[in-house]
């Protein structure tokens, strides 16, 4: 992206009012809160500062804001400590985990203690995309930039989200951690058209999957354990692929604000109004906009 956009709670609230949004769940976007993977002290401090700040907005506007806490991954010990603090002290309603943490993907073996802890907490995990990372010959982690002309959120975020989802399925993490409710980003990214290929290749090469999964099992896990936000550009085409795997009861409104600026958020909302009405009943549209979120977040109204 050209730059990190400014954010102000009052401007956010004004946008919510224009769009008739009653409550927002705040979270940190890419690149997250661990900016220097070899400096765990800095990562833990920045993560704590960011989570405290989000909790303060939630306390200042309790009827309008809640938040998903960040974790200083791939610092596992720091993440385990932050889970307890964010949930018990700050009141986070869930956790955001990036699609990779300096090259460590959600299904990687070293992530198991974090998933076990989150499973114990019976929490929500929002998977947010970030830039694909790889290790160079010197052992340093660098972002993958296939085509510098195009910003990574255009394509690479979608592909990295698909990688993250694949690791959750093939590692057995999604199946094992049955007390976690996952929120996938951007209408499932590239998961729907590639799911059968992922499962099919894993069946041909069983060594690549810790927990081989059938197409039927994968579809069941997706529908029962995952919600998907509709942030970005899911209409008119992308939505149809996701609806092969799930239905309106697992879809959520998402704005991607402020990386999607206010004017674009309002235009995308108008597009969503038009497109949803062609695909779903009035009740289903209401559930996508608010009903599903109220149940998921136990908002009670």
How would you summarize the topology of this molecule?
Elements: H1 9-18, E1 24-26, H2 40-60, E2 65-69, H3 76-89, E3 94-98, H4 112-121, E4 124-128, E5 133-135, E6 141-143, H5 156-170, H6 173-176, E7 181-184, H7 191-204, H8 215-225, E8 226-229, H9 238-242, E9 251-252, H10 262-279, H11 282-296
Parallel strand pairs: 1-2, 2-3, 3-4, 4-7, 7-8, 8-9
Antiparallel strand pairs: 5-6
Helix pairs in contact: 2-3, 3-4, 5-7
Description:
With 301 residues, this protein is an alpha/beta fold. It has 11 helices and 9 strands. The strands form 2 sheets. A 7-stranded parallel beta sheet has the order 1-2-3-4-7-8-9. A two-stranded antiparallel sheet has the order 5-6. Helix 5 crosses helix 7 (191-204). It is 46% helix and 11% strand. The chain is globular, with a radius of gyration of 19 Å.
